[in-house]
């Protein structure tokens, strides 16, 4: 069954190493029967032309503008140069470290959804919210969907519990099932991805959860050999 496997490089890799990664991955996928949809999100300085046939390249961030006077940002015009039509919005690190509010995330979503982008929209709770109980967690996750058109056909939701990102501690299969089952009742047909310390050792079990349509992976996907192992282990056996 085809699922979605997305890699967020975050602030890692250069244009040179990204190109080497992509070329290696393309060759690997030419030889392997991997049924999944694959997306790579390198840093903006390492964006490449979207000419690969086995996967697509997306952007980790963009400002809601065609072009203009927004120092340090890139807009739609810069993404067009590379043929990029996939975008991450609402990642917890941008919300937490860079102060992106829900209103700001919703403005990004509105702009790029009107331009037919494939949008990976991220939601997730902190450890303190988790400790307040399931009801508070679910209410918080719903609040992160405010201003987001859930009928947009190219929307994907990535649930990433903040306490599991980069910590090496993934949510348990029971926790993922519980949250994803609830979110599916709200999201319906929208693909729902899990993110948070996904790696080759747990990808197969995570993919067995019926409400998981894919994964958004961080550090375990930054080295090509590790990413290849994730892809191979993702197959049903």
How would you summarize this macromolecular structure in one to three sentences?
By secondary structure, this protein is of the alpha/beta class. The protein has one domain (4-233): Alpha-Beta Barrel (TIM Barrel). The protein has nine helices and eight strands.
Any overview of this molecule?
This protein has 9 helices and 8 strands. The protein has a single domain, classed as Aldolase class I (TIM Barrel, Alpha-Beta Barrel), CATH 3.20.20.70. The N and C termini lie close together (12 Å). With 237 residues, the protein is of the alpha/beta class. It is globular and about 45 Å long. The model has no long low-confidence stretch (mean pLDDT 95).
Features:
alpha/beta; 8-stranded parallel beta sheet
List the helices and strands and how they pair.
Blueprint: E1 4-8, H1 15-31, E2 37-41, E3 56-57, H2 76-81, E4 86-89, H3 92-97, H4 102-113, E5 118-123, H5 127-131, H6 134-143, E6 155-159, H7 173-187, E7 192-194, H8 203-207, E8 214-217, H9 224-233
Parallel strand pairs: 1-2, 1-8, 2-3, 4-5, 5-6, 6-7, 7-8
What topology, given as strand order, has the largest sheet? 3-2-1-8-7-6-5-4
The number of helical segments is: 9
CATH architecture designation: Alpha-Beta Barrel
Number of domains: 1
CATH superfamily heading:
Aldolase class I
Regarding quaternary structure, what we see is: single chain
- Tell me the series of helices and strands, N- to C-terminal: EHEEHEHHEHHEHEHEH
Organism: Helicobacter apodemus
GO cellular component, one term: cytosol
GO molecular function: triose-phosphate isomerase activity
Function: Involved in the gluconeogenesis. Catalyzes stereospecifically the conversion of dihydroxyacetone phosphate (DHAP) to D-glyceraldehyde-3-phosphate (G3P).
